[in-house]
Amino acid sequence: MVTGACKGLEAGIAHPRAADGARVQPDSRRWFALGVLLLGTLLPPLDFFIVNVALPVIRSDFQASSDLAQLVVSVYATAYAVTLILGGRLGDLYGRKRVYLGGMVGFGLASALCGLAPSPEVLIAGRLLQGITAAIMAPQSLALIHATFPAEEKNRALGLYGATFGLASVSGQVLGGVLIEASPFGLGWRSIFLINLPIILCALPAALVLLRESRTNQGARLDVIGACLLAAGLLALVVPLVEGPRLAWPWWSVPLLLLSGVLLWLFWRYEQRKEGVGEMPLVLPSLLAAARLRRSLLATFLFYALASFFLIFAVYQQAGLGHGALAAGWAILPLGVGFLCGPLCSPRIAQRLGTRTASLGMALEVTGLVLVAALAGSPAWLPVPLLLIGLGQGIALPALVRLNADQVAPSLAGLAAGLMNATLQISAALSVALLGGLFFLLAPDGAPAATVRFAFSLTSLAIAGALALAAGLSWQRTSDAND
């Protein structure tokens, strides 16, 4: 059990070469348990992607404004990003299996509320609850994988974990379209939320039987003040990043961003004081004092600059090439296929390259982005570099997960999962705001197709630059580990 100030870094930080999985007593049912955990990994991103295709129908059904319809997406993303670190810490303190089951039940109830919503306001409230419960559930999946699998099997398990994200990105919009077109039982768009209920009803008894409890810090209490300060700080940061581009950066966006800096500084000082007097903070400052962990989190942050690519690619396809929305959706499919296949290759590559696997994956992404930028005027060739981007992303993601987790003691696996997932979500919001903003600055509404193609090429190169930095950071991290 980690107590007090953790007696320095050694209590919270694992040596990069430490085989944390070696201490795990393998469960003979662990691969069946992994299937249950991957359902908890699949549902949060699936419910993000699946809603996009349903927005026009939802808006028409409720006769809602476009701003209200967009809140259906943004309120989920905001709640998810803000709650992830707290969700991971809850699992460390109160039991990861217990919190996972509670999060899944809550996600099911929130899905039912969305599916039965009589008004857009109730739907938005349901999406808010979906985001919160998804953030409680998601970090437990990753923490339980680390607690369940020995070191020699962890790369394979994490490869399947990464493939689940690829499956969500590929299947989300396709499944949404199928459900809306088929309209089972006359439910229409409501079926995209209610489909979660039979999945969860099957997963819950399996989780009760197959998952072993994993818990640390027994007797420690939740840092409520720290949790409130962190939630307020992240909320003040994420809301302007998510809503600012949609609302043309209203006056309140800058004050909120400044307030987020103040709140996060107060949170950090409070956590330092709490750790200094021997109490258990929400996030251990001594943990983030480790250069290796900071570097791997920064690499993770830069890695997800790719989130903005999905936005600019859709606009490029329609405004730059004159394709319809359906054709634009199919055009991104090679990237999704690569993202699905990449994690399946990652374990074998990791056996040879170790943590440098992340650098290799990001190098493939950089190559693909440079080719996409060069071929923006020749769309017939785009599937090849798109496949390369997806393959690289799929190879890099599981390696980055392992890279971050290896810096943290197993007792803090939930916190590590929450930190990494929150880093990804905040990076996505920031990259869409900044790199998406660059794209629209270069190609405002009504710009000629050639201008849109130029803006797409330049922004793709900017994303490639961020990924090149991330590849360098993760490669440097490996060099340090070998010292």
Automatic annotation (TrEMBL):
Predominant place of localization: membrane
GO cellular component, one term: membrane
Domain Major facilitator superfamily (MFS) profile: 33-482
UniProt-recorded Gene Ontology molecular function terms: transmembrane transporter activity
Subcellular location: Membrane
PROSITE patterns: MFS
Keywords attached to this entry: Membrane, Transmembrane, Transmembrane helix
Name of the protein in its database record: MFS family permease
Species of the source: Pseudomonas oryzihabitans
